[in-house]
Write a structure and sequence with these properties.
eight-stranded parallel sheet; two-stranded antiparallel sheet; alpha/beta
Length: about 325
């Protein structure tokens, strides 16, 4: 398993982490026991980085990780990342954003309690609140570091300009963004800015929400997902077009003797020594496929074949619907 540094002076962790969104039944039903099995398998595979958020299942993902840690004292610990900054109206369920010090402080304390840890290794702003200047947010997070409640901070789904402004106040350990063979906008400045500033780029959805695997989504599975069934990339005719487009990638992976998921993750980790991937899964078997990508060494011919099979811009449909686009910063 390759290892990468989470920001300047940060811990060196496995290049692949476990995304905790799947522990909240976001992509389908699961159980605490199944989630614990994934976490246990992760440790066996040399994966020691887990990523979650306070809103994943309204705290469920954090509680599941916390209960796993409580039963595993003395074993190799995970480096834990979590997030805050998204607020939901308790009456209407409407989503909004809050980067105020009071909100971030309260949510941090709640996350610490659910996870059962004394400090968060990496604390992200999940979405930027345009009402609060990013410099003020960075100062707040630097204060949490000084207080010993977090060890570093990161930003999620932000523009390179926002990263530079925050880093001018206090170094940013990591930026989390969607990045895969199907979503490559980060290559238009964010990937480069992270490298320049010594910031890790942590890629979520590295297998294109299943499109870049040997068992891609079907019309039935998409219809059962609240997220995918309104996502343009998974609506017809785009879904059929994307399934057809990725057939060549699956064939290439088979020719190279590996699962498609492993090849997708392997390609991603070759895009820079500061790039990490945090795939999520409810399946131990799928985790093993993903983890295989963490040790791949792809030569120039293999990388060229991947790019030829899935060139930039191949995907049909936007990565988000209009509603899902509320929050992420567009910069290209």
């Amino acid at each position: 398993m390759k290892r990468r540094q989470l920001g300047q002076g940060g811990p060196v962790v496995s290049a692949i982490g476990v995304g905790g969104l799947s522990f909240s039944a976001f992509y389908g039903p699961t159980t605490e026991a199944a989630s614990h099995a994934v976490l246990a398998a992760a440790l066996e595979l040399g994966i020691d980085h887990v990523d979650t958020a306070n809103v994943y299942g309204v705290g469920l993902s954090e509680r599941v990780i916390g209960s796993f840690l409580a039963g595993r004292r003395g074993e190799p610990p995970f480096t834990i990342a979590t997030k805050a900054g998204i607020r939901r109206d308790p009456d209407t369920g409407a989503r909004g954003f809050d980067n105020s010090k009071a909100h971030l402080q309260a949510e941090l304390d709640a996350s610490l309690d659910r996870l059962g840890v004394e400090a968060i290794d990496l604390y992200y702003i999940h979405r930027r609140d345009p009402r609060v200047e990013i410099e003020e947010v960075a100062e707040t997070l630097a204060g949490f570091i000084q207080a010993g409640k977090i060890r570093s901070y990161g930003l999620s789904e932000i523009a390179p300009s926002t990263l530079r402004r925050a880093a001018a106040v206090h170094p940013v350990a990591a930026v989390q963004s969607e990045y895969s063979l199907s979503t490559r906008a980060v290559e238009l400045g964010l990937l480069q800015a992270c490298a320049e500033l010594g910031t890790a780029l942590v890629a979520f959805s590295p297998v294109g929400r299943g499109l870049l695997t040997d068992r891609p989504p079907t019309l039935k599975s998409v219809a059962e997902s609240e997220f995918l069934k309104v996502n343009p990339r998974f609506l017809e005719p785009n879904l059929s077009a994307n399934l057809q487009a990725t057939e060549g990638f699956r064939a290439l992976a088979q020719e190279l003797g590996m699962p498609a998921a492993a090849l997708a993750v392997g390609w991603l980790l070759h895009q820079g020594d500061h790039v990490l991937a945090i795939p999520g899964t409810r399946s131990v078997d799928h985790l093993r496929e993903l983890a295989a990508g963490g040790s791949l060494e792809l030569g120039t011919e293999a990388l060229a074949a991947i790019e030829s099979t899935l060139p930039v811009g191949w995907a049909h449909g936007d990565r988000y619907s209009s509603g899902q686009w509320v929050g992420p910063e567009r910069f290209s």
